[in-house]
Amino acid sequence: MKRTLLLSLFLSLLLIQTKAQSDTLRLSLPEVVALAQSDAPNALLAETRMRNGYWAYQSSLADFKPAILLDGTLPNLNRSIEPITQPDGSEIFKQRAQMRNNLNLSLQQQIGLTGGTVFASTGLQRLDLFLTDAPNLTSYFSTPISIGFSQPLFAVNELKWSKKIEPLRYEEAEKGFAEEMENVAYDASNLFFEIFIAQLNLEAAKRDKANADTLFNISKGRFEVGRIAETELLQIELSSMNAAAAVQQALLDLQSGTERLRNFLGIKKQVFFKLEAPENIPEFQVAFDEALNLAKQNRSDMVSFQRRLSEADLEVERAKANSGLQVDLRGRFSLSQTADNFADAFSSPLDNETFRLGLQIPIADWGKAKSRMQRACSNRELERINVEQERVNFEQEILLKVKQFDLIRNQVALAVRAYEVSQKREQMTRNRYFIGKIGVTDLNIAIAEKEGARRGYMNALREFWLAYYDLRRITLYDFERQVSLVRRVDGFEEIECEK
User: What is the pLDDT of residue 12?
Assistant: First the structure.
């Protein structure tokens, strides 16, 4: 696959450009999303489902085009003993030896307007009789032209309904493909922040460990001169051990997150990630009405609602058609001739006409047709109610996501300020502890508050970008670049099926 080659080339370039560590990938959030939507296993599954939908649609389009068929039997040899009917009606066993050869070329076209079929054909048959007591006999039967039609009356026009439903099904597949790709982007961003926060946690844990060790060394000196109690020294020593445990836990979280992201991206080799901090928070605003209109235009749900209602209508039509009068019209006109040689078989052909009107009239079915009809109508009403409820849920989901997005944006600004304040307070408290102005309890409180503010900021940043990709996912629209995320599929390369 071309995209697999491009992914391998991109990864190779990233690895070559890395100076610190040859197996470390330095990626930003958009790059992780792009890699995931390129050749991640989930993206390939989405593409395969889209491919199936594409070829299913192409198959439905082919139903409206003529079909040219060539069929024949070359040869059909029969040499056996069989019962042969005599002129007086009796039968006797005789040995037969004959060979039939036939070839027929036909053209068929279904009529979407009526649901019938018209056809034209031409054909030739040859019969050879192998006789033991006389010369072999050869005869030909030709049909230079044969045209006809088949038209059911009062039946469901499957082609008409296919013309209505199959484009909806394909449009649903296209938009569903875009939704799946945005699901991949959302999952990729979630895994990105899992590693990014683990990296920051590891850095913070290492800093805390260094600070805790420094503080422990200073406290041991103070204890030796009697300036602090043993209980305070033990508390500081416990803090140092907790900081060491935090480093190990952060390292474990980073390794676990790295494996999950590597597997999600479909990267086979062992690599490490050095993720860059996301860019500044986008400043675009999203109005509910705009988001709702975009979601209605782009999401597959709206198309799915139409398709499901149309399919329910089709089932009602089928039940109605199968419960009443069935009429089948068939007609054929052909020219044919038979002769002992090939040339004469096409000379002065004789015309043949056939016409048939078939009727099927239900007399009594003890309520079976009525039950089918009522069931179909009940299912259609049930589908209509479900669709209406899902429409309401759809709009409520958009409203909730838009409101959450604005709130989360505000939370990021508050979290940034809280983290800045906590950092300054922790540094001031630490300096005061070093000069003996305050006790270790106040210092631990400041450290805990700074750590809580840092985690709050990281979580707020993560929640914003997840909300950002979630908003893209539910509207299939990139508000930052102001472009639709629906991917129009013009075609797929044919794949070679392995035996």
Answer: 47
In this predicted structure, the answer to whether residue 413 has a pLDDT above a threshold of 70 is: yes
pLDDT digits (tens, 9 = 90+) for 157-202: 989 999 999 999 999 999 999 999 999 999 999 999 999 889 888 8
Distance, in Å, from the CA atom of 102 to the CA atom of 121, rounded to the nearest integer, reads: 13
The pLDDT of residue 17: 46
Residue 171's nearest CA partner among 63, 65, 56 is 56
HSE-CB of 160 using CA atoms within 13 angstroms = 11
Distance CA 41, CA 263 (A): 9
Torsion over CA: 252, 258, 264, 269 (sign): negative
137, 17 contact by CB (below 8 A): no
User: What kind of fold does domain 2-60+162-307+382-484 have according to CATH?
Assistant: Outer membrane efflux proteins (OEP) (1.20.1600)
Tell me the C-alpha to C-alpha distance, in Å, between residue 60 and each of 165, 311, 488: 10, 16, 19
For residues 304 and 179, give the distance between their C-alpha atoms in angstroms, rounded to a whole number: 13
187, 46 Cβ separation under 8 angstroms = no
Gap between the Cα atoms of 324 and 3, Å rounded: 55
Q: Are 179 and 437 in contact (CB under 8 A)?
A: no
Compute how many other C-beta atoms are within 10 angstroms of the C-beta atom of residue 159.
Answer: 19
Residue 127 CA: distances (Å) to CA of 337, 445, 486? 14, 105, 61
* pLDDT 10s digits, 136-162: 889 999 999 999 999 998 889 989 999
pLDDT tens string 354-371:
999 988 888 877 888 889
Are the C-beta atoms of residues 328 and 153 closer than 8 Å to each other? yes
